[in-house]
Structure formats: structure tokens, C-alpha cells
Amino acid sequence: MQRYITILYHLLFAGLLLTGFTACNKLLEVPPPPNELGIDQAFGDSASAVAAVSGIYNQMGSNGYFQCGGLSFFTARSADDVICRQILDYFALDSLLYTDTEIDYMWDEGFTCLLTANTCIRALQSTTRLSTPLQHQLLGETLFCRAFINFLLVNIWGDAVPLVTTPDLQANRNAKSVPRQQVYDQILADLLQARELLTNAYPGKSRARPNRMAANALLARVYLYQNRYADAIDQATSVIASNLYLPLPTPVSAFLKDSPEAIWQLMPSVGSGVSGAVADVVLYQRSATSLTPQLLAAFEPGDLRRQAWVVNNVFSGSTYTTANKYKDKGATGNTNPTEYYIIFRLAEQYLIRAEAHVRLGETQAAIDDLNVVRARAGLPALLTTLTQQECMSAVEHERQVELFSEWGHRWLDLRRWPGINNPNITRADEVLGAIKRDWQPTDQWYPVPRSELQANQFLVQNPGYPIK
């Protein structure tokens, strides 16, 4: 109990989180606090309330296995983006175990971050000590963050995920796994409310805290994943038509902290003892990591993304062709990084809208959007005579070479798309089944950690993994 109170006070009064908490303490095993007096006090004035909500972003920026780098890195290996050459890569082999440390930490960090958001939401809903505009802004931010965290959780663990909407740890200890549509319903409810509370203006000098367009960007993605294509088009159009993110910058500068393409981004850890570099720099350029032959072969000749976002990197005497979207390697004590970790960016909105148009049979509108992304890459426009299936193949191609190694896009795309040759299976079964020797359809969901199953009898395991 005392450990929980110490961590909670550290969050609420300093706006920071103990990064070790996410890796060593189980969300559902920590006893609840005796009361919420400290929470009420922490949201009693504007400075402490902003600091408390900022703790969510600090936590995301330090979650090395879930948000900050890890999720992108693990899912890129599960798909056909990346492979680590000097280890037995269980992610690339899709032979994960429910005892794997990485899986345990991913789950732990995700639900710990969810607890933080729930704590802030409850306090912001009940406080009467903040101005209405500030209360709306902060509540909109935290609802958006909860939706984003739940989106990641449900797309990694599917129907095994519990729906956690309260900071009450006693209730969460026995939270049940629910059908993923219930999680999506909560995501949509949170985003629709967040959109009404937020404005187009970014709080602060950067885009490190979300605005209304960030909520619309995530809504567009959620609607696409839910096959609500007209709604996806509406939300993506609202982001594009806002003119806040135009024009698309050249690939070489797309990931700078001042990039006009960035809709929402996280500031990397800076200051004494840390480098100020985005985690991807370490994960891809300081390891024996290669982009797969399948991804490298997907780039068309002359694609500027291939030139700007791929590099030959020497590590331990060997050369690896790896991701180079982030280039600022940082320096100890750096307090002014040139790159922030981009979570949502404008190119994805064009690709969301293009895919939704294709699904509705509106191929010309889809081609127009694809050509915006291709023009930025220095590629010729697509022919206007493409069939609907050819247009969908073009969407898949552009998403592969535009969004590789980012936030699990390729992994989630392959899993959500039906097969081309057999619509009764997924595109993951077709693509990954052809290149991965031991591929099984059940590999499309990660296992629930054994420690969580042992701590909570109401959790279910995903098919294909042990249940005890």
C-alpha cells in the first residue's frame, strides 16, 4: 500500500513517474489506496493539474517495452519489416512464449499507463477548482490518451484484454477479459468526448500534447479498423482540411520535431544522464537489426523514402541495412533534441482515406490520395485505370513503404485485411505464412503473460498458448 501511495504522489505532485514501476510491479497486484484525498488536492490548482496530466506523457516516453520504441520494434519483427540478426528472434519467428520477459513488460507498462490515465480522468471529472477551459482541455487529453492506450492493448491482445476504466485497483484485480468490440466501444466513446473538449490549438509550444485533430486522427484509424469507411473518410478529411499539417515535407525532414506533418508526438527524455535521442535510434542503429528482404524489395526505383529512411549501419563489425527515420543520435545531457517521437502524422490520414475510398468502390478518390503520398516520395502518379483490387494492392504497397517500423502498422494491417486469394483467412496468413516456416494463424495475437493469468483467474488466454 505504501509503495502505491508513494508512486501516486510522485505522479500527481511532480508530473513524473518512476520508470521502474512499469517493469516490476503488477497493476492488478498492488493494493488500493485508503482514500483519494491526495488526488483531489493534486488537481486543486492549474499548475499541479497540468503537472499530473503531463505525467502520462512522461510515462509514455519512458515505457521502453510498450509505447516508447518497444511496441514498434517488436511488432515490426512479428511482421515482415525487421529481423534481429544476432539473437534467436522469437518475434520474427512468431514463436512467442507466455513466459517471455518482453511480453510481461509490454502488458505491465500498458496497464500501468492505463491506470495513470484513469486516475487523472476521475480527478478531472470531479474537481471544481479548475477553470472550465483548463478542465476541458486536460480531461480531453486524458480521455484521448486512454483511448490510444486501449487501442494498442486491444490490437496486441484482442479478446484477452480486460476493459479497465477505473483507478480502483481492488476492482481491477479481478477485471475480466472482454470481447474486443467492448473495448472499441469505449475507445469511440472516449474519443468522441475528447474531440468535443479539445480545440485545434496545441497547449504549449510543441505538438507533444494532443489537440482536437489528434483525436480526429485516431478516430479515423479506429473507424477504418471497424470497417466504418464513410466515417473514416470524414475524420481523415477533417484533419487534412484543417490545413494545420500541410504541405507534406520531404522524407528527409518528415520526422523533425517541427515537422508540419506531425499531428501528435512525444518528446524524448532529455537532461542529465540521457541522450535526448528517440528510442528508435538505439533500437535500429545500435543493434544487429536489418530490414527484411521483402521490405527492401518493395521500394520502387527512385523512391525518396528509401534514400532518406534506410541506412547501411555498421554494428560489431558487420553491416546491416536498417531503419533511419530518426537520425538524431543525441548526446548525454542534451536538452534540445531535433526530433520528437511521432505517433500520428498526416501521411497516414491520406492512406486511411485512400483505403476507405477503395472499400467503397471510389477508386478515383483513392488514387488521388495515394498520389499525394507518392508525389512526396518522388514517384510517378498511379494510372487512373486501376481496378478496385489493383487500387487496394496499391494501398497495401504504400502503407508498407510509408509506415514501416512505425507503431505496428504493418503487423496490424496484415492481420485486419482479408486474404486476396482466400478471403476466409487473413492477409497475415497469406504473406507471413509464405515466408515464416512455423507460422500458425494463432500467432496473430500475443500471449497473455503467465504471471497475469496466475494473478487473475478471470483473464483468458489467446488461442495457441498455454492457459496455466
Automatic annotation (TrEMBL):
Which domain of life does the UniProt lineage start with? Bacteria
Q: Which InterPro entries match?
A: SusD-like_N (IPR033985), SusD_RagB_dom (IPR012944), TPR-like_helical_dom_sf (IPR011990)
- Domain RagB/SusD: where? 321-465
Q: Give a Gene Ontology cellular component term annotated to this protein.
A: cell outer membrane
Where does the protein principally reside? membrane
Instruction: Provide the SusD-like N-terminal domain boundaries.
Output: 92-224
The record's subcellular location field reads:
Cell outer membrane
Keyword annotations for this protein, in alphabetical order, are:
Cell outer membrane, Membrane, Signal
Pfam families attached to this UniProt entry: SusD-like_3, SusD_RagB
Does the entry feature the keyword Membrane, yes or no? Answer: yes
Keyword Signal in record: yes
Say which family it is in.
Answer: Belongs to the SusD family.
The entry's protein name is Carbohydrate-binding protein SusD
| Organism ancestry | Bacteria, Pseudomonadati, Bacteroidota, Chitinophagia, Chitinophagales
